Amino acid sequence: MPFTRLFPEERWRELAAEASGFTQDMERRAAGGAGQRRLGSAQKPFGRRYQDGGLTLDSPGLRLAASSRMLDIVNSYLRMWSKLSHADQWYSPPLGPGANRVGSMRWHRDYNDQHLVKVFIYLCDVDEDTGPLEYVPGSALHGPYAEAWPWNPLSELYPTQEELERRIPDSAVRTLVGPEATMIFCNTSGFHRGGHVTEKPRKLWTFHYVSPAALRSLVTRNFELDPASVASLDEVERFALT
Q1: CA distance 134 to 147
Q2: What's the angle, vertex CA 65, arms to CA 61 and CA 67, rounded to 5?
Q3: CB–CB of 107/158 below 8 Å?
Q4: Residues near 228 by Cβ (< 8 Å), separated by ≥ 6?
Q5: What is the side-by-side order of every strand in the sheet holding 83-92?
Q6: Residue ranges of domains in the chain
Q7: 133: which strand partners?
Q8: Which CATH fold topology does 3-241 show?
Q9: Is residue 18 predicted with pLDDT exceeding 70?
Q10: Which of 49, 89, 90, 181 is the one with CA 20 to 30 A from 55?
């Protein structure tokens, strides 16, 4: 859905402006010959702004992720108060039309929790050449494709394209292209893939929400906040961030 269906235009401008500095830095590095190896790893060839921490409530992205509006939607789906486990800005450089799918570009289930929500916010127009998110509705818990390589905690499930096509028809796959400021809510314990960027860079924010149990045993956060910094937030926001 459009970002502005849920949040005011001013919130989008703030988020996009704050993201621009990281995008420009990644583009300078790519233009200077950094290449995909320095922008990420062989399995995740993209730049992550907060991979090593540094995220605070001064960031419009984290404030958005922990806002009561966002949490109301996520928590209604999960039927519980959730924990925000990850918030980051990603930049995926184009890899060329012949690039192989590696890591999360292949079909997989996330192992973080069996019932979770990821939110993706496109910071640019995303079409088939920009590595759009692809998803199999009905492949999460209780769906018709839930038993195809069923979810297991801490298990990395990467069936081949050919194997998946034998179990799940191509008609079941949804490709989530969209213009800048598209927002996607997704339970990624279901089969998904993305980031196979061939022609144009992909830019986005991503937020990950899990159950309290997963945060204790399966998930490592990429941020740590001073308790005093969240004291003025309401109860559900504090719960999500602590």
Answers
A1: 19
A2: 115
A3: yes
A4: none
A5: 47-48, 83-92, 202-210, 117-122, 183-186
A6: 3-241
A7: 176
A8: Jelly Rolls (2.60.120)
A9: yes
A10: 181
CA distance 88 to 53: 9
What is the C-alpha separation between 122 and 157, in angstroms, rounded?
26
Label the pairing between strands 192-193 and 133-135. antiparallel
What type of residue is 101? Answer: R
Q: Are 214 and 111 in contact (CB under 8 A)?
A: no
Q: Angle at Cα 73 formed by Cα 185 and Cα 208, nearest 5°? A: 50
Tokens 């050449």, located at residue: 129
- 41 pLDDT band, cuts 50/70/90, is low
Q: How far apart are CA 43 and CA 91, in angstroms?
A: 15
Residue 136, Ramachandran bin (φ over 0: left; ψ between -120 and 50: alpha; else beta)? beta
CA dist 57 to 18, 208, 223, 227, Å?
13, 16, 10, 11
pTM of the model: 0.92
Distance CA 33, CA 38 (A): 9
What mean pLDDT is reported for the chain?
91
Structure tokens at 119: 């939110």
Please write down the HEC assignment for all residues of 63-112.
HHHCCHHHHHHHHHHHCCCCEEEEEEEEEECCCCCCCCCCHHHCCEECCC
The pLDDT of residue 19 is above 60: yes
Whose CA is closest to 193, among 230, 151, 160? 160
- State how far Cα 36 lies from the chain centre: 19
